[in-house]
Amino acid sequence: MTIATVLQAYMYKTIARMYYLFQAHAPTNILIRWIRRREHLKWGLPLGAALAVGYWFAMNAILTVTGTDRVTWLGLFVILFFWNAVKFAVVAVASPFQLARARYVEWWYQDTTDRPRSASRRHSPPSSSSRWPTAQ
Hints:
Elements: H1 3-25, H2 27-35, H3 44-66, H4 75-108, H5 117-120
Helix pairs in contact: 3-4
């Protein structure tokens, strides 16, 4: 094994651990996981839009206070707030489509007696009086 291979494996493990820690303990990631559950998808658009706008205003407030020509440690918060605003904007846009897909899948697999006749025939086994002759 070369040193490069060992360093690459160590970097991979470190990145995987950091990813796990951020997914498990970062408040925004926990909230996004909560929103993406089926029973909470209806909150995706209002929460995502409100939090995206809130993070955007917080980012602009820090930029206004510090001045855009100076680099300070508050720049880390600017980057963090920008990233969170983008994450919640994506959640706000994507969650209505995810909700529509979840409702369609639920409708499709519900009891066949509630579906229209044309849709209920799609998954039912062929009857003996089908239009194709069967072997006797």
